[in-house]
Design brief:
15 strands, about 230 residues, alpha/beta, 9-stranded mixed beta sheet, globular, about 25% strand
Length: about 230
């Protein structure tokens, strides 16, 4: 156990039923990808009791105690993963900003990519052709092309790789991050910071493909190895 990095997966906060109880969840595929690549997965839970869906217009409105409780969870971890999902809660961008400021390795997946971008003042927008990109977790939708001078290229070691696609938004502006991987429509499927150990967001879902595609598994393998250092 001492040699295994602790990876905190930021739980999604949502209302299962209208005007009823709220729940948090961690996707099974994502936690399994962590375990299968030598990490130990734990959940990072929201510390306030209400959902605060925010999108691009997030702000740090946690109380002192709520913020301390959130940071205490992050400090248990060697790295953080932000999940995909339809909605985004305020605390997901708060976690992303804290990881950037403290150089904690973080991987943002789909909506998680949105949140690492939003944390640094970026914005997202709806795509005009969702029928091409809101397809399937388990089938390849298209290839992406990857800049050879990027950190992400050094991870997957290929200029082109097939990806799945299940989204309706894309990155608009992303200050402090570079767009380094693109789908056939020119949308940024990969963004990264060259100044941090690992601050990368991907639009696709590697947790659904890592068992059958080595490029997708390399993302988790490299991320978890980075968290060991």
């Amino acid at each position: 156990m001492k040699n295994k990095p602790i990876i905190g997966i930021v739980s999604k906060h949502y209302a299962k039923y209208k005007d009823s109880r709220t729940d948090t969840f961690v996707g099974d595929e994502l936690k399994q990808a962590v375990f299968d690549n030598g990490g130990v997965a734990i959940g990072i839970l929201p510390t306030e009791d209400k959902i605060k869906y925010s999108g691009d217009h997030w702000h740090d409105d946690l109380s002192k105690v709520e913020k301390e409780n959130l940071i205490s969870q992050i400090k248990l971890c060697d790295g953080i993963i932000l999940q995909g999902g339809i909605e985004t809660d305020n605390y997901e961008s708060i976690v992303s900003k804290y990881c950037y400021d403290n150089d904690i390795p973080i991987l943002g997946i789909c909506a998680g990519q949105n949140n690492i971008v939003r944390a640094l003042g970026g914005t997202t927008c709806k795509i005009p052709n969702p029928e091409k990109h809101n397809k399937s977790f388990y089938d390849y939708a298209h290839n992406i092309t990857i800049n050879k001078d990027s950190k992400f290229f050094s991870i997957v070691n290929t200029e082109s790789m097939p990806v799945n696609s299940i989204h309706q938004r894309t990155i608009n502006e992303c200050p402090l991050l570079e767009k380094v991987g693109f789908c056939e429509n020119g949308y940024p499927d990969v963004v990264e910071s060259k100044d941090k150990k690992f601050y990368i967001g991907v639009r696709f879902h590697p947790e659904s493909l890592y068992k059958k595609n080595e490029y997708h598994n390399r993302i988790f393998e490299y991320f978890i190895n980075c968290c060991k250092k």
